[in-house]
Amino acid sequence: MELTPDELAGVVDVVGPVTREELVQACGELAFKRGEDVDSDAFEAAIDDALSTYHVIAVDSEAQRASKRSGETAERDHDADADAPLVVVGPAAFPEIVEGAADLPHILDVPARDPSTETVAAAAEQRFREDAAEAVRAGDDERIQALLDVSYDLEAWGPVELAEARGLLDEATHAN
How confident is the model over 97-115, as pLDDT tens digits? Predict the structure, then answer.
């Protein structure tokens, strides 16, 4: 079973913030319900694609712990995967709810988690800056253009300011 980045975002939208392992499990449940092959490697690759296009965002455990220390809401204390990064719906997503996804919260035993908007936005901004620096170093015009497009989505989506990074990306496209 193949899932598009928007369909993966739809799974996360229905279930809530999940670990990568839980997202693979959710994809497996959907495939099983549809009578299709459960291919964890294909799900992993689809998640990588969705992360790279900012359809979903990974919030690492350090950002979650910092959120807890600063008094913001984070995952419940009984969460066994408290140190695992959480995958949340990203700024480039138009979540598409696939058939059978509505049943996932009842099938999976995923604790309720609520990372703050600021924590998620900060994780997305950090990832964006790293991706932008790598794209410029590599001289990857296609990736630079994709990141320029994503930068506007990110600013509209969360409390981030990317004008300076966008300027550097724009300069890199003119330098090549």
Answer: 999 999 999 999 899 899 9
